[in-house]
Design a protein that fits this description.
Layout: E1 4-7, E2 10-13, E3 18-24, E4 33-39, E5 46-51, E6 58-60, E7 68-73, E8 78-83, E9 92-99, E10 111-114, E11 118-123
Parallel strand pairs: 2-11
Antiparallel strand pairs: 1-3, 3-8, 4-5, 4-9, 5-6, 7-8, 9-10, 9-11
């Protein structure tokens, strides 16, 4: 059974920073593409960033490119999302997800495992 547990969310002022952490159970973490998604009230869950199995390749949504950085530590079964220059429109529940699909940016349906989410709120 794979479990993903996110932490690090909170309330921050616009322009501030937060670092989200996702710790995964399971011995095959290094074989997963890891992704971060977010869902704002009344909106669909959207892609934020993903990172390849080795951590050598990353991809970002245009809305966060240049502000967010995803990283992965296979030795700690952990993936991070460093969020800088936060904006009110970044307010959402952020979810960590794991996919076994080999793709630059797996589709949302290709992520088999999801965390419970962590709330990020950015005030103006």
């Amino acid at each position: 059974q794979v479990q993903l547990v996110e932490s690090g969310g909170g309330l921050v002022q616009a322009g501030g920073s937060l670092r989200l952490t996702c710790v995964a159970s399971g011995r095959t973490f290094s074989t997963w593409t890891m992704g971060w998604f977010r869902q704002a009230p009344g909106k669909e869950r959207e892609f934020v960033a993903c990172i390849s199995r080795s951590g050598g390749t990353t991809d970002y949504a245009d809305s966060v490119k240049g502000r967010f950085t995803i990283s992965k530590d296979n030795a700690k079964n952990t993936v991070y999302l460093q969020m800088n220059s936060l904006k009110p429109e970044d307010t959402a529940v952020y979810y960590c997800a794991a996919s076994t699909v080999r793709a630059l940016r797996p589709a949302r349906a290709d992520y088999a495992y999801w965390g419970q989410g962590t709330q990020v709120s950015v005030s103006s």
